[in-house]
Design brief:
Blueprint: H1 12-38, H2 58-70, H3 79-91, E1 96-104, E2 107-116, E3 125-131, H4 154-170, E4 179-185, H5 197-204, H6 208-211, E5 214-221, E6 230-234, H7 238-242, H8 244-250, E7 269-276, H9 282-286, E8 291-295, H10 322-337, H11 365-403
Parallel strand pairs: 3-4, 3-5, 5-8, 6-7
Antiparallel strand pairs: 1-2, 2-4
Helix pairs in contact: 1-11, 2-4, 2-10, 4-10
Length: 404
């Protein structure tokens, strides 16, 4: 066989290839830097040290799902929606509550915010989030005559709320040294396409200073399916998602990994697979808050993503498993007990060191977050300039080649 060799660098097409390669490498490096800059740094936790202390009540959570469904559809502005909010307040007497109402399109939504701030709180805030409204239509139902009728929302709505309520009962006894807030969003499932109206309204009405105190914003949605399966969801904070892995390992929720008792884990969390999902975490993420979404997008045994019982009248109480509710309840409880979502507060910020003296023991993590966000904005701008320059060069070279 005759192999013809030629100089790589002298080929016009090769020059284009080189520029494209450089562009891709530059993009990958900058995106990596952007991701590292935008996220914050969490302390190392030892979940198994707290494994024996877990007390989340999965049976009570399942009863809560059944009670919510018995109220009827929890559409914004409905009597069922009001009764559910009042029930949350009655069940969590050690929490303080506030409600925020917002007009959106043809309805008024009401977000419910529960706060628990211990006396010795460091100032860091962890948000646990679930939407409590239910879909006002069943556009994916096989029966066309039922598609305009609101659904029960046993999994898509009630499951996340039930887990937050049960967590709210035990959080005051955990002796935490940070603040926990639970955001029950309204209007997530409304609109022709689910509009995540409540979380958008919440994010729009928060100042940068208020958001800077949040070390983790964790959304749980559709977490009651008996055939439970989670993957990584983007957009969101990669580093915050990485804190979920050791918790899932500890509880035996990762196949091929041993739990704290040395037993083989099951296939619940697929740590390495990613899907894009628009949910209540997005608005917070866009404001620079470390946010993730724990959501099972394949509802029903053997169903494909966004298929099965999702947005149909089959989203009923019999499809929800107390065991599944317990898996997520225990995972969140374990994360809280082990302080898995606290930021390091003793990191110095070099850019301010010449202007102000810091007390390393009392540096608030909001300074760290703000600087990380500003770095990410700068890197993002640099990335855009480099990409535009490289493609302009490719265009010029391609034009010159065609003239030859």
């Amino acid at each position: 066989m005759l192999i013809v060799r030629r100089s790589f660098c002298r080929s016009p097409n090769s020059q284009i290839f080189v520029l494209i390669a450089i562009t891709v490498l530059s993009c990958s490096n900058l995106v990596s830097a952007l991701d590292d800059s935008a996220d914050s740094h969490y302390i190392e936790a030892e979940p198994c040290d707290y494994y024996d202390q877990l007390e989340f009540n999965s049976s009570s959570a399942n009863q809560s799902v059944a009670w919510q469904v018995s109220l009827g559809p929890r559409i914004p502005g409905s009597q069922a929606s009001d009764r559910l909010r009042e029930s949350v307040k009655e069940n969590l007497t050690e929490w303080t509550f506030s409600e925020e109402s917002h007009d959106r399109e043809n309805f008024t939504l009401t977000n419910l915010i529960a706060s628990y701030e211990p006396v010795n709180s460091s100032g860091q805030e962890i948000y646990l989030v679930a939407h409590y409204d239910t879909r006002d239509r069943a556009e994916r139902d096989s029966n066309e005559s039922l598609r305009d009728i609101p659904i029960d929302g046993a999994n898509d709505g009630a499951s996340g709320v039930a887990v937050l309520i049960e967590l709210g009962k035990i959080i005051p006894s955990l002796n935490l040294n940070y603040t926990v807030k639970m955001l029950f969003t309204d209007g997530e499932d409304q609109g022709e396409r689910p509009g995540i109206y409540g979380s958008k309204a919440w994010a729009e009405n928060r100042s940068d200073e208020q958001l800077s105190n949040i070390s983790a914003f964790i959304v749980i949605d559709m977490i009651g399916d008996a055939d439970l399966h989670f993957t990584h969801v983007w957009p969101g904070s990669s580093e915050l998602w990485l804190t979920i892995e050791p918790l899932a390992h500890a509880l035996g929720l990762v196949e091929g990994e041993n739990d704290c008792m040395g037993l083989d884990g099951e296939d619940v969390f697929d740590i390495n697979t990613s899907y894009g999902v628009i949910d209540d975490h997005v608005a917070a993420h866009e404001r620079g808050v470390p946010a993730i979404d724990i959501i099972d997008i394949s509802y029903g045994e053997g169903s494909e993503n966004w298929e099965g019982h999702w947005h149909t009248h089959d989203d009923t109480i019999d499809k929800v498993s107390a065991e599944s509710l317990g898996k997520i309840g225990h995972l969140i409880e374990l994360g809280l007990r082990s302080s898995s979502w606290l930021l390091h507060v003793n990191e110095t910020v070099e850019v301010n060191s010449t202007h102000e003296e810091f007390n390393n023991e009392n540096i608030n993590s909001d300074n760290h977050i703000k600087i990380k966000v500003e770095k990410s904005k700068f890197i993002g701008s640099a990335l855009l300039v480099i990409i535009l320059f490289m493609f302009m060069m490719v265009f010029i070279l391609d034009y010159r080649i065609k003239r030859l």
